[in-house]
Structure formats: structure tokens, C-alpha cells
Amino acid sequence: MIHSYHILGTGYQPAHWREHARQSCRASSAARARTHVKRRELGLAALAGAATACLGGWGGRGKAAGAPSRPLGIGPDVFPALNQYVRGRPLIYLDSAATTQRPSAVLDAIDDFYRRDNANPGPAFHELARRANARYESARSTLAGFLNASSAEEIVWVRGTTEGINLVASSWASARLRPGDEILLTVAEHTSNLLPWRLAADATGAKVRCVDVDEEGRISLQDLEGKLCSRTRLVSFSHVSNVAGYINPAAEICARAHRAGARVFVDAAQSAPHLALDVQAMGCDFLAFSSHKMLGPMGIGVLWARREILEEMRPYQAGSNMAHEADLSTETLEHAARKFGAGTPNVSGPVGLAAAVDYAAALGHEKIERHEAALVAHALERLRSVPRLRLLGPQAPEGRIPVFSFTLEGLAPQNVARRLDAQGIAIRAGDLAALPLLKRFGLTAAARASCYLYTRFDEIDQFAEALGHIARSS
């Protein structure tokens, strides 16, 4: 796979910059140069000392020597953040549902943009602006292909899933909902797919209703059918639960909602990292996901919507780039996704996200899915052997991703997470931003271990062994 950041900006000559730097150095006095170097050395030494002092209580931190290779042919140095010690032990990172680590290809793409092509993008300005614009638009096309969107004009850049949902709640729902209208969610929604719709309903007099789930967290299609009605204006649901890990039947839910005359929003925050997405086959009207959960940088994500819907929506924010020929009384709005791009864009974000998509594609989506399916089966088998452990979500490996929420009888989930952290094992604990679902399970908190394409089987083994020791010693 040839990454876009390797082929854009071919007129760039790094030697020009090196020669400029050499000339600048020669223009400075030797004494000033020595002073600068000495200050820099002292500053770095001070930083290193401060870091050592801060990390000393954590058992130290550094690159893990002789780290084994990872699955799918991934070398030990491809994910730099995974190749370190935490509290004196090699890091076992099982918090990928919260955020994934980044491969060198993504880090290099972002670094390359800032080193070579950084400029406020524009197709008709200077060379750097044109190169920045080319990379920005190339990323938009890459993400359109990732979703099988009809057009790149349907890709709206947002900060993440949360902003994508808020954009639609503000720009689409608030302008269309009327008193008595209904928004249909599920009990299993993340807080970010709950609060924006409640605010939109409060502002318009509409009502939010919730579809129930079964004992393993699956959306009840029977309850969905019973609650869909002529007043339903929107159905919004998580493609994959961030707690139960279950893959909901998105296409079927979309079809049922459309038969009732409702639009459909799919929260793909947990599915985009693991599943091949096809918005046309799925049949949804809106879909959003976050870059940082699928190897890309934080602070960028995608809202996809059908072009005809985007054209009907009012702007979410106003400013330069989303409008032209703006004077004191008139302006000309951009069309489709570009109408939602006010102000200077975050170019490096899409560049990094596109590099992440390319990286996963180069590994092979089928290979990734097979590896993750094997991880699910292995983890379920190992977790069943842990005494006093209650696993939330489906107990069978089919139709789920490698996300495992659990409790240990008699132990607070936060305490379990702290004890694992003391062994260099990173998980998450709390209400998991899904309190209604936890309450449906009779809980208010749970621990969660989540894996990704870089997770090794021996890391699952060590995690299960550590859990077993905690359970037996408490």
C-alpha cells in the first residue's frame, strides 16, 4: 500500500532547507551557538530529571528490551507506545475501546505534513497551501472509500463521534422536531448518543424513548418494532455496544425505522475500528465515528450523511471557508459537507486518519477480523476460568468484538483496575459512559478490557492470570 503522504508534494527538496539551516548557523557567532547548545543540554537534563522523579513512584518507564513481535506480522517497533515498561513491567494495553495506540505510519504521516506541507490549505494559493489542500482532500476521498460513500462531498470532518452527533442534533433535529415527535434510542447507548438528543428534545418539545435490550445487551427487535410509530422522527443506536461488545443488526434496524418513516443515525465509534462499513448497504442516513479509536490521531472524526440531507441542513457553525462572497448582508454558502467546515481546518487530523485507514487496509481487513475473532474466543475461554468473575454481554464468541466488561464479586471495579495497573496492565473501570445499560445489568460500575489488532494471545493469558490472582487473594 502506497500512502498518500509519500506521493504528494513531489516538488519538495529537503536539501534546500538543510542549506538554509547551514547558512543561518554560519551567520551566528560560535560563542552564541555554544551558549545555545549548553542551554539546550541543561534544559533537556532538567526535563529528564523531572521525568525520572515523576515516574520513579511508578516503577520507572522505558523501552521494553527484546519485545516480541505482534500479530499480523507487526514488528515490535511499529507501535512505539506499546513497547515500554509501566511500573517496571512490560505494558499490556487493554484499553483500546477508549483509544487505540498509533502505528509509526500514522505518526510519520502527521510529522511529514508538519515538516513539509504545513499551510492554511487552498487550491489556488501558494505551493504549500496547494499541497496542504491536496492532502486534505485526498484524505476526504480515502474516508469516502472506507465507508463506500457515494461521494467525498458526504464526508464532514468533526472532532469525533460526539461532535458528529451534536452536529446532527443541532442542525437537523432541532430544526425539524415538533412537540409530540419522538426520538428512539436504546438502553445501551453511550452518553454521547444520549445527551445531545435529550437536549434537542427538550428544546423542541419532542420526546426521547428507549428500546430495551436482552440479558446480554442485544437490542430487542421486538421492542423496537413495538415503539416505532408515526411520531418517530429519528432512530439512533450504537452499531456495537462499548460495554457488551455485541454487533447489532444495523441493516435490519435501519430498514424497520425507514418503514416507519424515520431517519436513522448509526453511532459507529466501536464498529469502525473492527468492521468493514458500507453505508449504502447498511441503509442509514447518518453515521459517525472517531479517528482515535482506529489507530488515528485524537481530535478528528467523520460524520457521514446523505448528500441530499446535508444540503437541507442549516450550518452548524459559521465563518470563513463554509461561505464565500460574504459581505454585510449576503453570503454564498458552500454545498454538502463543505457547508460544515467553518474556519481553518485541522489538516493533520484527516492526514493521520487516512494513514490509519491505509495501514489497516495494508494489513488486510479479513486477516484482522480473523485475528480478532480468535482473540474473542480465547479471551472468553480464559475469563470463564477466573473465580467470582461475571462477564457482561454475549457469552458466545459469535457476533461480538474483543471488548470484555466484567465485575469481580466483592471488589469495586475501580479497585480491580488499580491493582491491574500496578502490574502494568491497562484497563478501564467506572460507569463506562453507559450507566443505563449497567443499571439494566443491575450494576452502576464495571471494569472493561478491550483488545485490538495488535493484542497478543499471551497478553490475554497474563491478564486472566492477574485477574485470577486478584480474585483468589481478596
Shape: globular
Number of DSSP-assigned strands: 17
How many H/I helical runs?
Answer: 16
Cα(first) to Cα(last) distance is 50 Å
Report the CATH C-level class of the domain at 110-361: Alpha Beta
List the uncertain runs: 1-61
CATH topology of the domain at 110-361: Aspartate Aminotransferase, domain 2
Q: What is the percent of helical residues?
A: 40-55%
Supply the helix-strand structural class: alpha/beta
CATH architecture of the domain at 110-361: 3-Layer(aba) Sandwich
CATH superfamily of the domain at 110-361: Type I PLP-dependent aspartate aminotransferase-like (Major domain)
Q: How would you state the average pLDDT, rounded? A: 89
In order across it, which strands form the biggest sheet? 4-10-9-8-7-5-6
Largest sheet: 7 strands, mixed
Mind telling me the C-alpha Rg? 25 Å
The proportion of strand residues reads 5-15%
Looking at the chains present, what oligomeric state does this protein adopt? single chain
Structure description:
With 474 residues, this protein is α/β, with parallel strands linked by helices. Among the domains are: 1-56, no CATH class; 110-361, Aspartate Aminotransferase, domain 2 (3-Layer(aba) Sandwich). Helix content is 42%, strand content 14%. It has helices at 4-7, 14-27, 30-56, 104-117, 127-147, 161-176, 195-204, 221-227, 250-259, 279-282, 307-312, 348-363, 365-384, 413-421, 435-440, 457-473, and strands at 85-86, 89-90, 92-93, 155-158, 182-186, 207-211, 232-238, 263-267, 286-290, 301-305, 323-324, 332-333, 389-391, 403-408, 425-426, 428-430, 446-450. A 7-stranded mixed β-sheet has the order 4-10-9-8-7-5-6, sandwiched between helices. It is globular and about 70 Å long. The chain starts with a helix and ends with a helix. Residues 1-61 have low confidence and may be disordered.
